[in-house]
Amino acid sequence: MRLMIWAVLIGICSCTAVDSDTNPESQALVISNNASTRSDPGLQRVELFAIFDNLYYIGIGWVSAYLIDTGNGLIMIDALYGDFVDTAIQDIRGLGFDPQDLEYVLVTHGHFDHVGGAGQLQQQFGAQVVMTEPDWQLAEASRGSSAQVLNRDVVVNDGDEIALGNTTVRFYVTPGHTPGVLSFELVVRDGESEHRAFMFGGVGLNFEGVERTESYLRSVQRIKELAQANPIEVNLANHPAMGRLFERRDLLAGRGLGEPHPFVDAAGYLSWLDELGQNGEVKLTEESAEVGR
């Protein structure tokens, strides 16, 4: 039973079959399970790149981090951890921005790889850290290890919004991966075109329990309904391999004039949600059998 669940955990992170020897997204999956390689710059370091006119990638090979330029201050999505916080700060400067203009750090959930650097960003630049109540508690329970959030700033609830400059971020609480996974949407810009982007803040199935899995499936279904009502065109994955991020980056680098933006894929987003739901159902079936349900 457990072997199948772990197969699902690996399969969920990529929409297509990949060769782990040559594909960086697959390699990131492999090294993410090894604590020593998670801090290895040679394996993790990724060059910053622009995705849209107002959105940049400043993350690493295993874990994503994004920078939003609102025209009147900066928003960072997820905080990385360890020395990679300093490289993200270097990337912000490398893009021509001042990290002192960092107003908010939106943390998708309280695991160390997403929240670990939040305290440093809070302390150095006065950025306000944003999380849900359950994941503030999760991060605070880890204080003294790898998650160093100094002070509780913004506790966000379902339906709340943050507006900064020309950007409004709308929040959704989508539990499952953790009890208080934070997801959100915003508009990204490509020249004169605008697109609806969405961050599902907790995709992985590396948790246990029938109730948690049922909660995860409800969250996937909710996001699917949001996408059906108003297409979600851009997948902001908080682990690169979960959204073919590096594959799309390479396609973007070779994009010709007038060609479609490779990150804009509304149909692909719905298919991805279907895959998440299917994998979650497999997990639920196995867990239910184990407890005799």
How many structural domains does the protein architecture include?
1
Element order, helices and strands?
Answer: HHHEEEEHEHHEHEEEEEHEHH
Kindly report the spatial arrangement of strands forming the biggest sheet: 1-2-3-4-5-6-7
Radius of gyration: 18 Å
Number of E strands: 12
Overall description:
By secondary structure, the protein is an alpha/beta fold. It is built from ten helices and twelve strands. A hairpin with a 2-residue loop joins strand 8 (161-164) and strand 9. The protein has a single domain (24-290), classed as 4-Layer Sandwich (Metallo-beta-lactamase, Chain A), CATH 3.60.15. The strands form two sheets. Strands 1-2-3-4-5-6-7 form a seven-stranded mixed sheet. A five-stranded mixed sheet has the order 8-9-10-11-12, with no helix packed on it. Helix 8 packs antiparallel against helix 10. It starts with a helix and ends with a helix. Residues 1-31 have low confidence and may be disordered.
Features:
293 residues, alpha/beta, Metallo-beta-lactamase, Chain A, seven-stranded mixed β-sheet, five-stranded mixed β-sheet, globular
Structure described in brief:
By secondary structure, the protein is of the alpha/beta class. Helices cover 37% and strands 19% of the residues.
